[in-house]
Amino acid sequence: MTIAGRVPPGTHVRAPRQRPRFAAGPSRTAARLAPALLLAATCVATLLHFATPPQDLAGYAAYLALGLVLPGFVVHRALRGPQDTWAADLALGAATGLCLELLAWAATTATGHPRWIALWPVLAVAAGLGFPAGRRRVLTRPAGRWPVWVNAGVATAGALLVWHLSRIFLSVYDLPPTAHPYYPDLLWHLGLAAEATRSVPLQTPQVIGAGTLHYHWFADAHMAAAHAFTGIALPTLLLRLWVLPMALLTVVTTAVLAHRLSGRPGAAVIAAWLVAPAMTLDWWPWTASRMEVFSPLSPSQLYSMPITVLFVYALSDLVRRRATTGTVTLLALSAVASVGAKASSTPVLLGGVLVALVLPWGRRSDRRRLAATAVGLIAVEAVGSRTVQGGFSGGGLQLFSDLSSMWAYHDVVTGTSHTPNLRTPVLPGLVGLGGNRLLLLLGMVGIELVRALRTLLLVLPLVLRPLRRDPMAWALSGMCAAGLLATFVIAHPGYSEYYFLYTTVPFGAVLGAWGLTAVARSSPRAARVALAGVGLGAVVSAAGDLALSHGTRRAAPALVLAGLWQPLAVLLAFTVVLVLVRGVDLFRRRARPQLPGLAGLGVGVVVGLLVVALPLQDLVDPRTDLATHPPPVSAAARANLLDESRAGTWIAEHVPLRDVIATNDHCLGEARPSCAAMSWWVSGLGQRRTLVEGWAYQAGPGRLFGDPQLLALNQRAFTDPTPSVLQALRDKGVDWLVGSTLFGVVSPRLAHEAAVVERFRTVTIFRLVSARPRAPAVPA
After folding, report:
1. In the beta sheet, which residues pair with residue 491?
2. 176 CB-near residues (< 8 Å, 6+ apart)
3. Which pLDDT belongs to residue 411?
4. Higher-scoring residue by pLDDT: 378, 423
5. Which of 63-72, 431-440, 654-663, 740-749 has the lowest mean pLDDT?
6. 168 secondary structure, DSSP code
7. CA 700 to CA 36: how far, in whole Å?
8. Are 526 and 599 in contact (CB under 8 A)?
């Protein structure tokens, strides 16, 4: 027997085991910063490889640091104090900067001084540091920091996402002038970004007489603000500079949210690897196209995701902690920003708040805060739906409409590739027509669920006890459920219902990371079993990617039905695991057997299935679609595209910003009354307002233009350019004419009635000389 603190003579004492530590001072700091610096270097090298002008890259980096992150960081800190880590402070500060930037853009553009936006960071920093409490919060260091391995894990996920975006976007779309085609929506958004440099709220530059634009255009305002701040050309911003930072901000904010909710830094790495894959488990060759969550072809979706994550982060503090003025302010600011960022954002957020509100447990004060948040979201959505949302009335409600995006539906049911009737209660051809149709319906629903596996993690609060009594877990689950439900019941000609599903991806990723760390921390055995589950899921996912069918293709109905087993096997295994986890949980409440790792195995398998999709999606899946990989075009078509691109670049450089242009180019392909009126290169590449260009997003795809007399007058200016016709255009504010002979007619007489200022083979640009003073077409 020994006395405490003393050791018998001759006893060998082993020195306590010391964990290796980094050297103090600069070496430790360098080790922590190395992953972020390597990720930044990867972004720079990638952008330079794809012909980004170095001076623009340097200017945009300065804008990100000084015009977005710094003022957002200071204001966020002044409102809420330091967060858990420096990564949280910087990421949430950048998202806050996105929201505040909208106010600065609106104020400076509305007053006619857009360049004054360079002053808003100074004002924001001064406001944050201008009172003692705010200054104290800003200057306080965060309580913790991420270990080096967490920084490395999150940065690696970001680097793989950069690689993916370079393959599907940066390598596909060149800077103008170019002979390669652009996805029409890119030109549409380029025109809106140009309009955001001259009007608040935005007018409709493609059909200037349509008045105020009813569309979620906050992403375009962000690019206009960056243009005003730096002077960088809008095409360079849209096609190069803004894509990678916005996608990476979503990854980091998602990781930060997972850390906050779970209390474990390891959850940040898991969440980053879950959110970063553009799609997951797309093993069936009849799904038509990949689910690109981070697709830059939808700037509004890319822009909205970090803002919605910011909202949920503030909501977690509102529910879990005390409701400070700073938290409420940030919650309101992010709610307003999200309603104009993407129309699908607010309904998804509202669904989560409502689910958390109706739970039978939780403190009464929490429920009051949730109720107030729900009322606020409803009010914001009511205002936003009448101001910064909307568009053509081509959408509606139809059960399973999203399934018509799959080639399987057209191969087995319709036999054509035409858009089905969207006005029936259920997608036509799937109900009541025999066993094969029922099998196809069940199979396609299952495949859609497999593709949305991250969103299906909404079930974790049901099967994991640590999450079950946390209102934030149910809020995330409700957001996922709302997005999934909207995807299955909303019908849209352009399949925009998928954006509800994309909005849920960060929240499903957080649930998966939270659930896995909650199980792993319950016991060492549970942690080992969970890790084994991750490895098992990764092996299954890799085997599916390597061994199962890939590549979109058409096929006979019998072959389509026979191939349903591939993704459905994954869904069946997922369902069995969830049932087993729930069953064992109920059994343990009664018998308390020693089975602590089964829940970890189930969650680990699901996480493993998902995370391996990130490195494999660009290695073994050759699937492409017309958006991310346009088909090859002939030499003649390339020459015509180059004419349009050169003409658009000339217009952007030489035509005054507020001038109006009339053009005879409205359609993709041959002009006819009900064509695909989505030709937007004049307002997009040219960045100027047009009298009538493409009208598909005002009237709807394939519909007639709403003002046939105006369209007829516009066309007569090119086919029959009499002095009276041209004077009528002058009276409507038209200053320039852009005539294309590719699919239209340009009368030789027009060269005598208007001044020819530039020719590009198939495109001629004319200047109208005013015969008498006229009023401007729209307010300046």
Report:
1. 396
2. 235, 645, 648, 649, 685
3. 76
4. 378
5. 431-440
6. I
7. 45
8. yes
Contact 501, 293 (CB under 8 A): no
The H or E element spanning position 325 is helix 325-341
Q: Which amino acid is at 481?
A: A
Of 106-110, 435-439, 657-661, 773-777, minimum mean pLDDT range: 773-777
Please check the confidence at residue 117 and state whether its pLDDT lies above 80.
yes
Phi, psi of 397 (to 5 degrees): -115, 130
| Distance, CA of 69 to CA of 75 (rounded, Å) | 10
Reading the block at residue 95, the tokens are 């998202």
Run of H or E residues at 495:
none
Distance CA 179, CA 502 (A): 32
- For residue 399, what is the DSSP state? B
Residue 31: band (very low, low, confident or very high) from pLDDT cuts 50, 70, 90: confident
What gap in Å lies between CA 346 and CA 503, rounded to an integer?
10
DSSP three-state, residue 303? helix
Both tokens of 757, joined, read 């200022």
Is the pLDDT at 120 greater than 90? The verdict is yes
List CB contacts of 690: < 8 A, sequence separation 6 or more: 205, 206, 207, 208, 660, 661, 662, 663, 682, 683
Choose between 731 and 409: higher pLDDT. 731
Question: How far is Cα 443 from Cα 14, in angstroms, rounded to an integer?
Answer: 63
Residue 642 has pLDDT above 80, yes or no: yes
| Of 443, 424, 446, the residue nearest 435 (C-alpha) | 443
The CA distances from residue 692 to 442, 682, 711, in Å, are: 45, 10, 7
| 27 confidence band (pLDDT: 50, 70, 90) | confident
Tokens of 224: 């206009």
pTM above 0.85, yes or no: yes
Beta bridge partners of 764: 739, 759
Amino acid at 354: L
Q: How far is CA 308 from CA 137, 366, 471, in A?
A: 24, 20, 18
- Do 572 and 639 form a contact (C-beta atoms < 8 A)? no
Q: Which residue has the higher pLDDT, 352 or 631?
A: 352
CA distances from 512 to 565, 605, 734 (A): 26, 11, 56
**Residues linked to residue 763 through DSSP beta bridges, in sequence order:** 740, 760
Would you call 179 exposed, middle or buried from its count of C-beta atoms within 10 A (0-12, 13-18, 19+)? middle
> 652: which residues sit within 8 A by CB, 6+ positions away?
233, 685, 686, 687, 688
Secondary structure letter of residue 548 according to DSSP: S
How many angstroms separate the CA atoms of 326 and 1, rounded?
Answer: 60
Quote the pLDDT of residue 89: 96
- One-letter amino acid identity for 316? S
Name residue, tokens 């004054």: 116
